[in-house]
């Protein structure tokens, strides 16, 4: 069986060979694209979230700063706006300053949240930072206090 394409005649076996060649080329290009994409994600993660050595002690300090600032306990499983906002700030700080996964961040609190709750909380945090001036001011105060605490710890450790 022959078919006329571009004024050339190809047999069925020639079509099959060309088709296999195209599939192989497509597969090769797709594999290279996925590898490059994964490498870019890894590089981006290394650039955006630096590795921290002693995360355990820092987590408790962050919890204490947030609990003291809000005058509440973020480990309590309750759905009040102040507690939710405080937890959201806590999650965002850990996500930005550690390489912890969402599940491991969720496991640092006794609220039995999973990664999807953290995704929602992080999105709400970003919305609040853009539109709620009071929320943004509180978060900046918390960041300042944590930075002061970290510098105090570093100066005490160097002496």
Walkthrough of the structure:
By secondary structure, the protein is mainly alpha-helical. The protein has two domains: 2-48; 55-158, Chromosomal Replication Initiator Protein Dnaa, Chain: A, CATH 1.10.1750.10. The chain is built from six helices and two strands; from the N terminus they run ββαααααα. It has a two-stranded antiparallel sheet with strand order 1-2. A hairpin with a 2-residue loop joins strand 1 and strand 2. The protein is elongated, with a radius of gyration of 26 Å. The protein starts with a strand and ends with a helix.
Give a quick precis of the structure.
The chain is 74% helix and 5% strand. The protein contains six helices and two strands, in the order ββαααααα.
Domains counted in the coordinates: how many? Answer: 2
| Beta strand count | 2
What is the level 1 CATH name of the largest domain? Mainly Alpha
Largest sheet: 2 strands, antiparallel
Low-confidence stretches: none
- What is the CATH homologous superfamily assignment of the largest domain? DnaA protein, C-terminal DNA-binding domain
Q: What is the 3D form?
A: elongated
Q: Please, what is the average pLDDT?
A: 82
Amount of beta strand: 5-15%
Predict the CATH topology of the largest domain: Chromosomal Replication Initiator Protein Dnaa, Chain: A
Helix/strand structural class? mainly alpha
> What percentage of residues falls in helices of 4 or more residues?
over 70%
Within the largest sheet, what's the order of strands? Answer: 1-2
Going by CATH, the architecture of the largest domain would be Orthogonal Bundle
The tally of helices reads 6
Order of helices and strands: EEHHHHHH
The end-to-end span amounts to 88 Å
Overall radius of gyration: 26 Å
